[in-house]
Structures are given as structure tokens and as C-alpha cells.
Design goal:
This protein is α+β, with helices and mostly antiparallel strands. The chain has 2 helices and 13 strands, in the order E-E-H-E-E-E-E-E-E-E-E-E-E-E-H. A hairpin with a 7-residue loop joins strand 5 and strand 6. The N and C termini lie far apart (43 Å).
Length: 184
């Protein structure tokens, strides 16, 4: 799985594991459980992976902040993706997301000090009942892992555009090769 940038703004203003002023210690955590991307109010947020995801929860809790959870499966690997501090969302529970789908807009909801997008990643496993649960529930990060090994710093729509250009060039080269073969 590859996670690309879900918003155009590229500045990460808080990384996984950071614990400024022991803020997360007060919450019973070792540090920040994801990546925070600075953004502007209402900035569009897009589904940022190369895997189809399913929206499983939308939060409208004022104290928790507006956000959404998406589950992906790749082979036997399951992940929960969270996008938090949203202004609104463009999806509904049960919806399947494909690369580049609009999922919502950035804001400053919940326990937040400014407009940004919180993005985290939690590996899941099936328990003895076949229910998905956090793989590392007691890791000090609410089951989250550092998303950086999965992360590629390119805006998802820039990546989609580059992919289409590469495909077009390859198709042209195949055509030229076939024409050359016909002449031989």
C-alpha cells in the first residue's frame, strides 16, 4: 500500500510520535498518533491510496471533531485510515472509495489548535470471532503506526496526472514500434 498526499498543501506540521509540551502524556499516550498537514479552511481532501477503501464511520462529535474512518484490505492486511478535523465530508458510510475521490474539506474541529488535516493509520487483524480489531491496541498510540514508511510526498491528483501521461507515452511508443515492425 502506498499513501500519497490527500491535500495539495504539503507541509507536515506534526509527525508521528511527537509530544510537544507532554500534551499526549496527559491523554495517556506516548505521542502523536499520525501526521498533521497544515491546510487552509475548506481545502479539499481526497482518498490518497492505491487501494479501494470502505467508509465505516463518520464522526460528528463536537469534542472529538468531525472525521471519518476508512478500512482497506490488501491480501491478508487490513488497515484503518482516519481523516480528522474536517469541516464536512462528501462520502457516506458504506461507500467504496477509489484513488482521488473527494472525501471532505479541512477545518479546525475537536481538540485542534488550527486548521489542518490529521491522517493516521492503524493495522487491524481479525480476532477469534472474525471481527477486525487493532493489531497493536496497547502500543501507546491508540493502535496507530508511523505512516511514513507507506508515504509518498506527492499530491494524489498530481500522481494521477503523471500516471496518465506515462501511460499515454507508453501507448505511443508501442504504436511506433508496431509501425516500425510493419515496415521491416
Amino acid at each position: 500500500m502506498i499513501i500519497r498526499r490527500s491535500i495539495k498543501t504539503s507541509q507536515i506540521n506534526q509527525f508521528f510520535g511527537e509530544n510537544r509540551n507532554n500534551f499526549y502524556k496527559e491523554l495517556g499516550m506516548l505521542g502523536h498518533e499520525g501526521l498533521d498537514f497544515s491546510s487552509y479552511h475548506g481545502e479539499p481532501i481526497y482518498w490518497d491510496t492505491n487501494i479501494i477503501g470502505e467508509v465505516v464511520k463518520i464522526s460528528t462529535e463536537i469534542n472529538e471533531g468531525y472525521g471519518m474512518m476508512v478500512i482497506t484490505q490488501e491480501g491478508n492486511d487490513y488497515y484503518q485510515h482516519r481523516f480528522w478535523h474536517l469541516k464536512d465530508w462528501s462520502v457516506k458510510v458504506g461507500q467504496k472509495l477509489r484513488t482521488g475521490d473527494l472525501i471532505g474539506h479541512a477545518d479546525n474541529t475537536g481538540k485542534s489548535t488550527g486548521v489542518h488535516l490529521h491522517r493516521d493509520l492503524k493495522p487491524l487483524v481479525k480476532n477469534y470471532l472474525g471481527i477486525l480489531v487493532h493489531k497493536y491496541p496497547d502500543n501507546g498510540y491508540k493502535g496507530a503506526v508511523d505512516p511514513m514508511p507507506f508515504y509518498q510526498d506527492i499530491f494524489i491528483w498530481d500522481w494521477i496526472s503523471l500516471t496518465k501521461q506515462k501511460t499515454s507515452i507508453i501507448q505511443k511508443l508501442i504504436y511506433l514500434y508496431q509501425e516500425l515492425i510493419k515496415r521491416i
